Amino acid sequence: MSGPFFSVIVPTYNRADMVTETVESILAQTFKDLELIIVDDGSTDNTKEVIARYLSDPRVQYIYQENKERGAARNRGAGGAKGRYLLFLDSDDIALPQHLEKAHALITKRGTDKVLWLHGNYSAYINGRVIDIKRKSLEGWILKKLLKINAIWIGTVVIRKDFFDQLLFDESLSISEDREFAVRAAFKAPVFYQPEPTVLMREHNDRSMRSPQLVERDVPRAIDKIFSNNEMKPITKKYRRIAYSYCYILILITWFSAGSPLKAEYYLKKAFKENPAIIFNPKFIKWFLRIYVLPLKNFSARHNRVLYITYNGLCQPLGQSQVVPYLVGLSQEGYKIAVLSFEHRHERDFEKEMDTVKTRLDRADIRWVALKYHKHPRFFSSVFDILHGLLRAFVEFLEEPYGIVHARSYVPAMIGLVSKKMLRTRFIFDMRGMMADEKVDAGQWTHRSMSYRITKWAEKKMLENADAVVVLTEKIKAYLRRFAYIKARITVIPTCVDTRRFPPMSVPQRNNMRRAFGLSDDRLVVVYSGSLGTWYLFDKMVEFFKATKTSHSQAFFLILNRNERGYAEHILGKYGIEVADYMIKSLSPDDVHGYLWASDIGLSFIKPSFSKQSSAPTKLAEYLACGLPVIANAGVGDVEEVLGRTNTGAVVHAFNDTEYKRVFEQAMGLIDDPDFRQRAYGTVKDTMSVEVGVQRYKEIYDSL
Which parts of 195-349 fold into alpha helices (H)? Predict the structure, then answer.
């Protein structure tokens, strides 16, 4: 009777607490034609008793030998194997159910006569979490690649038994025996690659590669073995210096991780002396910065230091109403904040607004670096801003190291992602919206455009690597949860309002304010506050107001907008709205509160689209804080759910007179409700106030 297709060999030593999971992962394979050979390399714990429960399965064998290290244990298992192909899985790792099935499919497709050996992709397994490892396909004659760096993990290797018998593991090596073995295999035959991750490499403190003493002793020995092989010398000799240089980088990483920067520095110097050209290698640069440039003594003291990066200028209304209050609140919670912003210096009253913001930040002991925002040329201006921001972020780190980078939207998130990789910071991706999809929905990009594809690629990288993700709506949170590559906690923090800037007013105060603004008591004031272009359906809002005039002849339209007066007047004229029935005011952020309190109904029509499920309009919280019933349209973030749940507004499902009349009557009913203003303000205090937002951000900071 012929043997099985696969022989899986599991060497183990004192891992009774882990080996059962490894064994069960093999026995649970979807491809059943296998045998499992467990080689106990002299364990002194209860490994034998633990394995005994599996020996009733005829596919399982147990072999005990005196301790001779993994290479000898693998060779012992392979010596008695009956399978056509061999696999070597360590006793702390886990095979996913389709591991053998995928390998068999590749071998069958390519042919057993051609596939002498193959390897595959894998994921890390850390504290019960599966973390994908992005690896490039490595196939064919890969000897030169393997001479530079160990790019094949033995846990994914499948090798034909007759080919293995020509090689065997070097039993004199305690670690890196798999690299030395792979180099000899690569010298003799091309390797095939299976790209789907089918094995989990368990990360834990007892892995041999975590021991700097062992790595320091045996990794160079493995390199010595490789370059003393006379058969390979004609090819390998010119790679000798490069290989040793990379070897020293590996040793320095283990010493650095073990808390010995001086030993790490020693091996960094050895790497340079062995091969000076390594200074151009990104890994060398990274560790040079960590060892010589970054103030390591402050690493443990920087957990409460935050670099907050925003692409919205703090001098803009959004910056003053949204970003600055959060920063001040978090500073009061004990976090040391530095903020990096990109300012629109060309805008009117910039210098005045800058003085105002600086005063607020100075009082809160917040350091502010104001960079110039660049708008042209498109896309490349953003690239320039990212590079400029990275430089400034790095300078800030040198002056006072921070432990958290809080990136508000996409351009800052690119800076945050690089900071995480280079400076070992925690990275918060505060998404705000779905930038690429918004550009498509706005008609500025297409799904095939280079800008869209680059931005979506960057979005995935940022979500993959974030330590925390913040979104504005429950809808987008539910959408993002579908993606397995997002491992970070997702927190919803809607657009909030600073209630100190929007304090409640009494009825007499409100009436006095209306008279001061020239609004008589009989006028019903419908207000819109914000931008008018792209997403904001100002023409539909004017259409709604015109319909309102038929029901309430004293209706008055108040438009609070800073820079689009000409466009507003054009649309109002197009719909025949009399000048006496509207007012357009350009206000500073501090003056908006008074005009909202002087109004009766807040209006917000936004173009519904796929990307707008992530949107939480700022004006929603501001209207409610000022006691205004809100009329909005469906299809925008959580607006419909919030207004319905709190009974604080009405939602338009179609832009027509019937719907306009329905929601207007609903809003008028809320105005007549004596409890409405208290309910609206309470909704803001409980769910959409800066105080609530600060506490949620603090929870994220504390968790990191």
Answer: 212-227, 233-236, 240-257, 261-274, 282-288, 317-318, 324-332
